[in-house]
Write a structure and sequence with these properties.
about 45% helix; 5-stranded antiparallel beta sheet; OB fold (Dihydrolipoamide Acetyltransferase, E2P); alpha+beta; two-stranded antiparallel ribbon; Hypothetical protein af1432
Length: about 350
C-alpha cells in the first residue's frame, strides 16, 4: 500500500488501517515539548505523498530510530489513523530497508513506472513531430542533455505536482491538452506552444530538483536567488547559442530564428499570467495566453485531485480547504447514467 492510499484511507469512514510502508525519512530530528518531553520529529515519503509524525520517547520505535538519519530508508509498520493533529501510527515498528528494497522504493510502483515511461514517450513523439526545425532541435537537445533531471524534478514544492516526477506528469498532461486544442484554434502557432509547454518550467530542474536516489528536494542557492522563470530564460538562451551555428539553424525559412527565440522567451516569462503571481510580463500573444491557461487548467485540476485524495469532508460532498484553492472544494457531479 502506498502513502497516498493510506492518506485516503485515514480520511475515509474506515479511518484506520494496519499496514507496512516502505519509505524514506526525509526529515528526522530530535525535539522536545515545552515540558521537556523528548520526541523525534519525522517527515517521510514514498514518492506518492509526504507526511509527518511524532515518535515519542516512550515508544519502542524511538530506540529503533536511534541509528537512523534523515535520508535513510525504512519500513514503518503499525496502525495508521488520523485526528485533528494529523497522522498517527500506533504500535509503530521501524526497521531499515535492504538495498534491494531501497532500489524498488525509488523505482516506484510498476504502475508509476509505466505511467512515467508513457508520458516520456508521448513528449518525445510530440517534439519529434514539430514542423519548425529550430524548435524541434532545441527541444530534443534539452531532453538529451537534461532528460534524467527532467524525469525526477517536481513541478512545485507544495501546491501541485509536488512529487518526484511531478514535472513530467505536469508537462505531459499540458502537452496532451495542447495537442487536443490544435484543431479548435488552427491560427495558433502550436509548434511554439508545445515548445513553451516543455520549457515553461524548465528552471524547476534547479529550483525543485530531487536527489538522484531520494524523495528529498533540497533548496538550492540558484533556485532561491533567481527562481525558475529567470533560470528557464537563461537555459533557453544558452542552448540557443550552442545551436546557433548548426545547419538546422542556418537554413532559410520563416519566421526568422531570432523572432522564434524572442517569442519562446516571452512564453517562459509570461506563463504565470499576472505580475502579482510572479510573471515579469503578462501574456501579449495568442500563444502566451494559450500556454498560461493550459498551465493553469492542469495545475487546478491537480489541486482538486489532491484535495479529494488528501482532505476529509466537513459535510457531505464538501471538503476541507486546501490552499491555494479559493474556498472549499466540492465533490464533482457524476456522469449521467440510466
Amino acid at each position: 500500500m502506498t502513502l497516498s492510499e493510506i492518506i485516503r484511507c485515514t480520511h475515509s469512514e474506515a479511518g484506520e488501517i494496519e499496514t507496512a510502508l516502505p519509505c524514506q525519512l526525509t526529515t528526522l530530528r530530535p525535539a522536545s515539548t515545552r515540558n521537556g518531553k523528548p520526541y523525534l520529529d519525522v517527515e517521510f515519503s514514498d514518492g506518492t505523498a509526504s507526511e509527518k509524525i511524532k515518535i515519542w520517547q516512550d515508544s519502542s520505535a524511538y530506540d529503533q530510530c536511534h541509528d537512523l538519519e534523515a535520508g535513510d530508508c525504512a519500513q514503518l509498520e503499525g496502525r495508521f489513523w488520523r485526528n485533528q493533529f494529523g497522522l498517527n501510527i500506533d504500535n509503530l515498528r521501524v526497521r531499515p530497508l535492504t538495498h534491494e528494497e531501497e532500489a524498488a522504493l525509488f523505482s516506484g510502483t510498476p504502475e508509476r513506472q509505466a505511467k512515467l515511461a508513457a508520458d516520456m514517450l508521448f513528449i518525445d513523439d510530440t517534439v519529434a513531430a514539430l514542423t519548425d526545425p529550430r524548435l524541434r532541435l532545441l527541444c530534443q537537445t534539452f531532453l538529451t542533455q537534461f532528460g534524467e533531471r527532467f524525469r525526477r524534478a517536481a513541478a512545485a514544492r507544495s501546491y501541485h505536482h509536488a512529487r518526484r516526477g511531478g514535472l513530467l506528469d505536469h508537462t505531459s498532461q499540458m502537452m496532451r491538452a495542447a495537442v487536443a486544442l490544435r484543431a479548435v484554434y488552427p491560427s495558433v502557432n502550436w509548434d511554439l506552444v508545445i515548445a513553451g509547454v516543455l520549457f515553461h518550467d524548465c528552471g524547476k530542474l534547479w529550483e525543485n530538483d530531487y536527489e538522484p536516489q531520494g524523495f528529498n528536494s533540497p533548496l538550492t542557492t540558484i533556485g532561491e536567488l533567481l527562481g525558475h522563470i529567470t533560470i528557464g530564460i537563461e537555459l533557453v538562451n544558452r542552448l540557443w547559442r550552442t545551436l546557433d551555428t548548426d545547419p538546422v539553424f542556418q537554413a532559410t525559412g520563416t519566421p526568422p530564428k531570432e523572432s522564434v527565440r524572442e517569442h519562446l522567451l516571452h512564453l517562459i516569462a509570461s506563463h504565470h499570467g499576472q505580475r502579482e503571481f510572479g510573471a515579469p510580463v503578462t501574456p501579449r500573444t495568442p500563444e502566451g495566453w494559450m500556454l498560461h491557461y493550459i498551465d493553469n487548467i492542469d495545475a487546478r485540476f491537480e489541486m482538486l485531485a489532491m484535495t479529494y485524495s488528501e482532505k476529509g469532508q466537513t459535510a457531505p460532498g464538501i471538503y476541507e480547504h486546501r490552499p491555494p484553492l479559493e474556498g472549499r472544494a466540492i465533490a464533482p457531479l457524476p456522469h449521467w447514467t440510466e
